[in-house]
Amino acid sequence: MTNIVANVNEVEGKVALVTGAASGIGRAIAELLHARGAKVVAEDIDPAVKELERDGLVAFVADITADGSAEKAVALAVNRFGKLDILVNNAGRIIYKNLVDMSREDWNWQMETNVTGAFLHSREAAKAMMPNRAGAIVNIASYASYFAFPGIAAYTASKGALAQLTRTQALEAIEHGIRVNAIGVGDVVTNLLNHFRDDGREFLAEHGKNAPIGRAADPVEIAEIVAFLASDRASFIVGSVVMADGGMSVPIG
Fold first, then answer.
1. How far is CA 193 from each of CA 198, 232, 248, rounded to the nearest angstrom?
2. Sign of CA dihedral 14, 19, 25, 30
3. What are 15-63's pLDDT values in tens digits?
4. Alpha carbon 203 to chain centroid distance?
5. Three-state DSSP class for 217?
6. Given 96, 143, 146, 155, which residue is catalytic?
7. Which residue from 3, 43, 112, 221 has the fewest beta carbons nearer than 10 Å?
8. What domains lie within the chain, and their CATH numbers?
9. Residues 6 or more apart in contact with residue 79 via CB below 8 angstroms
């Protein structure tokens, strides 16, 4: 029988790489993993990620979609802390345009971060984890991985692709001891919409009231799930998209 572990430091001694770590969910993840004993590389295109730096937490400013960024981020983790145990593909963005109004540049802008950046980092992280026959990759997906909404075709397509990337890599990686899972996140109060509306955080908080739970999430609530999925406590969870959306994905009869 497996012993019940009460210790909350479930990632103690592990080394993690978190993308999109300058704010919101990514920042909460980087800080929580670090607080629970992990060494962390926090990556973001925003130089504000440097504010996170402290003993055991290193900032890396980079565009996750650029050639070489994933390789450099993984190498930084391995060179600084000796290994890589955890990758969290959190970086994401959203565009609000109907399909007929969307340019190819709009589409690529959306897909590059949400899918291509995750692919590049997952590939390089797996290479670093395979010799140790252990590791965990957690992708921040969305309830939009499964549900469609007008005006965000590129976003729903990108999150659907991320869910399928999760499942497929999970099947490929598990024989090497690497678990790959995702979280189907609902509305979370972050800066996701701030690039095109001044009331982005307020909008997300208000939209979250449509969920059965009646509110949006705090980023720390998502970070808690990441910490669990990245830990050995989640040793039997493989290829899952764990829904954390306040009930938005539950069919209402």
1. 8, 34, 19
2. positive
3. 999 999 999 999 999 999 999 999 999 999 999 999 999 999 999 999 9
4. 22
5. strand
6. 155
7. 3
8. 15-244 (3.40.50.720)
9. none
